[in-house]
Write a structure and sequence with these properties.
heterotrimer; A mainly alpha (316); B alpha+beta (457); C mainly alpha (300); B: 457 residues; alpha+beta; D-Maltodextrin-Binding Protein, domain 2; 2 domains; seven-stranded mixed β-sheet; 19 helices; 9 strands; C: 300 residues; mainly alpha; MetI-like fold; 70% helix; disordered N terminus; ABC_transporter_permease (chain A)
């Protein structure tokens, strides 16, 4: 506002000070939260990763021992890394593509579109634990309906959650079942593509694939990118469904992480086991540091490519 | 005057953000200064008898109704002997919960666990307090407790738990199915066990298993490596605490026997059958419903069968010994509940009295042992005429295993039995056929176990 | 599939003219496409809803039948639901879950709105850095910080309760701040300036002018906070694991089958009990739900 420049320096300084105070007041909970719930634990995680902390007796500095164990001592860590990597590389794209496909089908429906949308979204509401328990029951190779139906079609169903090769695909099916949120977001984005663009493309003689590639995709790409990145972050943190599925499928009271045969052991699970079950909290912090670095790498990639985030955007 | 649009991130980074940055640094510094892990270890209170009324909390892992009722009955006896101590018992507690409570400073006064594997971690980290001063002050006679049982309740020179009822493992078999298959007595060697299994197993028309003679797939019900390996006399750790699964040929022999039986069934069929087995501790237990003809399980199964009113005509025997190792016949695996005083217990004096009562009072031991069908852990209790179990023929093999001097256990280790977990992972790969060279695989497991053991130090 | 404007090369039909023939063919084709699309949609709907039907059917089977491959219950054992409540403290779990979800949602809304407002509408140095910090917090997996956080709560003797789950929401939730900030950017500055000129301080601008305009965003954030808390397994596992009296539904359901030695029928009944409140709320607030989800995606 031009009039501000005409004010004398003293009132201006006072006004700026008030402004700063006001900002601090509004931001106060966030600042405290940032310091207490991000900066402090992050610093402590890094520090503890160089100790032999077990969360009970005082920690002792041990240098790089935890990191050395990570690199060549821990027999399970490469399983964990591979599994989490599989989830990021396979489950996330599968979810995005499936949600997009379902959204496209729904967008083209004329009769009953909103009913179908509700039906597709409903499973996404199921709490992850409940959904996992239900799926393990459904995919039970002995008494579950999936193998029974496959049997009627003449296919000998695999052991699903009890088979090292099929457990992650089974978890992926679970994720696809619950991708209703992504689907609704994609649907909204698809419906916002201006009809004129489609008509113009048709007039130019574009077939449906070309229309998709040159009209639909560019318009919805920010939404797809956002969904993919949040999907990747969720994949890096994937814990609940893997943990619950392995325990329920194994059928023992003691948890069986990674059952069967380490195939569902994710990186966050290994962190939990090392820190909370095996008295190796220092080592768990080393794992946490690795997870942090990887997650931040993806975040940086996102920040560089996402012009859609309006990071520097001024108020309109 | 508006903010710059779309400049590179570095532009804002150079601008001083004094207020925000300063408050963050201050907060972090304050919190970092306040942070240290751990605190003072409390010493056991063996002071003079203090009879002011006190309430202590006791966490145990038993969960089925008949077991919790039995524990409460024994606690009532304790209250009669020490009327000023009231015990608040909490059932169905797992080791995770106990650990979390200790870390969180909300530990109970007394805690028990099924999982003796954690004793090493508890003793070495101080999570459970060393009971030796209390034991010496009260002149508790430790020779009443068999050596093997003593070994899984202490570690590194610290006795941080006491054994509270033990479990031994043996063979349960279905007499009716035996008769149908023409088998007259339970197998005494592992090759007899394999042969009997093949006779007892029946298949459906589509090739899937209808009734399994025995479940050789490790990880199902009581079929765990630690219960199988004693038939070959395997020793998990060497005298100086190094992993021994590659060095001791017993492990390779046990796994070879096991895999040949798994392959006879077909690993996939076994997994499918396993997925259809009822929950281990429910009335639909596959043995109790006649779907499994023989199984290795603990002595408590007798009491479960009685309480589930299972319609089954069964017998018990000690586990068969490996061929050529007949001296091991009658020995087996012993493990059991452990009970101790977590760090941070608020009433250590009263807590110790409860621990001493539960673990050494003959009457308490025999009553509870009879009620839940476990093996009492002192010689006095074993020989007591009040012990009803000693008159039960189905219980006899389990008592025999307990008394046998060759009976072994899984030794304690500082990292909560990671060597067992690692071995379990290896076995999963092995029994599905993914390990081409058994000897090399076992040596690799040794290396992993030793690395894990070093990590905790 | 294209709509043709010119007559297509004639393939003789019974149509009177080439033009009509083309339209007839196109309309038949459209009908077929319509049928195909709806068939696919119906198939998908079956796949999505099938599991829920299965859960329900299994939940009323008898113990023995739930171990077989029968899909339809021979005998409808409705008492299973009562048995679930008798077997495990499901009522307690429900109460704890509701407490956690409501408290976390309220705390999140209360603290995140001012922060989002400051990031969107107040001007100060370092605003962009602050927003970057918000994005960083959003993207950070919670497992990275769990060990020191746990130690911190342990020193405060708050482990075993739901406080460690609720208290952090009092200090702003990154995802909520992000959403609200994006939404606030679309509120025209004119409204705010008008209020400022009228002499309102920023707080009054926020509460009197902006807040009423933010309703859809607030609903969206509220719904997401609520369901994140309702579905949370990791948090309760770490912080309430040691005190079964404070367990939430997620935690209880995960070990229901093995802790209580039950079969699949009771487990599925328990699963349905855990899912039911969410689905019921959804049916009452469908419109708000879908609007909220859409808002996340479009503004994100």
């Amino acid at each position: 506002m031009a009039t501000q420049l005409q004010l004398t320096p003293a009132p201006l300084r006072a006004r700026l000070r008030r402004n700063r105070l006001r900002v601090l007041l509004f931001l106060a909970p966030g600042l405290v939260g940032f310091a207490v719930f991000l900066v402090y634990p992050l610093v402590m995680t890094v520090w503890l990763s160089f100790t032999n902390s077990n969360m009970i007796s005082p920690a002792r500095f041990v240098g790089l021992r935890n990191y050395r164990y990570l690199l060549d001592g821990d027999p399970l860590i490469w399983h964990a890394i591979r599994n989490t990597g599989w989830l990021v590389a396979v489950m996330v794209p599968a979810q995005v593509l499936f949600a997009l496909g379902v959204a496209m089908v729904t967008a083209r429906l004329k009769a009953g579109a909103s009913l179908f949308r509700t039906l597709f979204y409903l499973p996404a509401l199921a709490p992850p634990v409940a959904a996992t328990v239900a799926f393990v029951c459904m995919f039970n190779p002995n008494s579950g309906p999936v193998n029974r139906i496959l049997g009627l079609l003449g296919i000998h169903g695999p052991l699903w959650f009890n088979s090292p090769g099929w457990s992650k695909p089974a978890l992926t099916l679970l994720a696809l079942w619950g991708s209703g949120t992504m689907m609704v977001i994609f649907l909204a984005a698809l419906l916002e593509v201006p009809a004129e663009l489609y008509e113009a493309a048709e007039l130019d003689g574009a077939g449906s694939w070309h229309r998709f590639r040159y009209v639909t995709l560019p318009t919805i790409s920010p939404v797809v990118l956002f969904a993919t990145v949040t999907g990747v972050i969720a994949g890096l943190q994937y814990f609940t469904q893997a943990m619950v599925a392995s325990q329920v499928a194994n059928g023992n009271i003691q948890p069986a992480p990674g059952y069967p045969d380490g195939s569902t052991l994710t990186f966050p699970q290994q962190l939990y086991i090392a820190g909370f079950n095996q008295f190796h909290a220092g080592y768990a912090c080393a794992l946490a540091v690795v997870l942090f670095v990887v997650a931040m790498a993806f975040t940086v990639v996102l920040l560089r490519r996402a012009s859609g985030f309006d990071i520097e955007e001024a108020p309109r | 005057m508006s903010e710059s649009r779309g400049g590179p991130v570095t532009r804002t980074a150079r601008r001083p953000r004094r207020t925000v940055a300063a408050s963050l640094l201050a907060a972090t510094a304050l919190l970092a200064a306040a942070c240290t892990t751990g605190g003072a270890t409390s010493k056991a209170d063996t002071g003079a008898d203090d009879t002011t009324p006190v309430t202590i909390t006791f966490w145990h892992g038993l969960s089925s109704p008949h077991e919790t009722a039995s524990v409460n009955a024994v606690l009532a006896k304790f209250h009669k002997k020490y009327p000023y101590i009231t015990v608040k018992a909490v059932a169905a507690q797992t080791d995770d919960k106990v650990n979390q409570a200790i870390r969180g400073g909300t530990a109970p006064d007394v805690a028990s666990s099924f999982n003796a594997a954690n004793v090493g971690g508890w003793c070495s980290s101080g999570a459970f307090q060393d009971l030796t001063p209390d034991i010496e002050a009260d002149h508790v006679d430790m020779s009443q407790i068999p050596k093997a049982v003593q070994s899984y309740t202490a570690f590194g020179g610290k006795r941080c738990t006491m054994p509270w009822l033990a479990d031994t493992f043996g063979l349960y078999y279905n007499k009716k199915l035996f008769a149908k298959a023409g088998i007259t007595s339970p197998p005494k060697t592992m090759s007899e066990l394999a042969a009997d299994t093949k006779k007892l197993t029946t298949f459906n028309a589509d090739g899937s298993i209808r009734t399994a003679g025995f479940m050789p797939y490790l990880g199902v019900y009581g079929m765990l490596t630690e219960h199988l390996v004693p038939s070959w006399g395997g020793k998990w750790l060497t005298a100086d605490g190094q992993s021994n699964v590659g060095g001791d040929p017993a492990f390779a022999q046990a796994l070879t026997w096991q895999k040949s039986l798994v392959d006879w069934f077909g690993a996939k069929k076994l997994v499918t059958f396993k997925a259809g087995m009822g929950d281990e501790f429910s009335a639909q237990n596959a043995f109790e419903t006649g779907k499994l003809a023989m199984m290795v399980d603990g002595e408590w199964r007798n009491s479960f069968i009685k309480n589930d009113k299972a319609d089954i005509d069964y017998g018990t025997a000690v586990m068969p010994a490996a061929d050529g190792k007949s001296q091991l016949y009658g020995a087996g695996y012993v493990g059991g509940n452990v009970i101790g005083m977590p760090r941070g217990a608020k009433h250590p004096g009263a807590a110790w009295k409860l621990i001493k009562f539960l673990t050494t009072d003959t009457d308490a031991l025999t009553t509870l042992a009879d009620a839940i069908g476990n093996v009492p852990t002192t010689k006095a209790a074993l020989d007591s005429p009040a012990l009803g179990l000693s008159k039960d023929p189905n219980f006899a093999p389990f008592l025999q295993v307990f008394k046998n001097p060759l009976t072994t256990t899984t030794p304690a280790s500082a990292d909560g039995g990671a060597y067992l977990t690692n071995f379990g992972h290896f076995v999963e790969k092995w029994q599905t056929g993914s390990v081409p060279d058994l000897k090399a695989g076992l040596t690799a497991v040794d290396k992993q176990n030793n690395a894990a053991l070093k990590l905790g130090q | 599939m294209t709509t043709t404007y010119a007559p297509a090369p004639a393939r003789q039909t019974r149509a009177a003219s080439p033009h009509q023939a083309a339209r007839g063919r196109a309309s038949r084709r459209r009908k077929l496409v319509w049928i195909a699309e709806h068939a696919v949609a119906v198939g998908l709907a079956c796949a999505f809803i099938g599991p829920i039907v299965f859960i329900f059917l299994t939940s009323v089977m008898t113990d023995g039948q739930s171990l077989t491959t029968n899909l339809w219950p021979h005998h409808w054992q409705w008492s299973n639901y009562r048995t679930v409540f008798a077997t495990a403290p499901v009522g307690t779990w429900l109460v704890n879950t509701v407490l956690y979800a409501v408290a976390a949602t309220a705390a999140t809304l209360l603290s995140s709105v001012p922060i989002a407002y400051a990031l969107a509408r107040l001007r100060f140095k370092g605003r962009n850095t602050a927003f970057l910090c918000v994005i960083t917090m959003m993207m950070l997996p919670p497992q990275v910080l769990v060990i020191p956080m746990y130690l911190m709560w342990a020193r405060l003797h708050l482990t075993g309760t739901i406080w460690p789950l609720v208290l952090p929401s009092l200090f702003g939730d990154a995802f909520s701040v992000f959403l609200l900030r994006q939404f606030l950017l679309t509120v025209p500055e004119d409204y705010l300036n008008a209020a400022r000129i009228d002499g309102c301080g920023e707080l009054r601008v926020l509460t009197r002018v902006v807040l009423p305009m933010m309703r859809p965003a607030l609903v969206a954030v509220g719904l997401f906070s609520f369901f994140n808390a309702w579905n949370d397994y990791y948090g309760p596992l770490i912080y309430t694991g040691e005190t079964p009296a404070h367990w939430t539904l997620a935690l209880g359901l995960a070990t229901f089958k093995t802790s209580h030695a039950v079969q699949w029928n009771l487990t599925m009944a328990a699963t349905l009990i855990a899912m039911a409140p969410v689905i019921i709320v959804f049916f009452f607030a469908q419109k708000a739900f879908i609007e909220g989800v859409t808002l996340t995606g479009v503004k994100g």
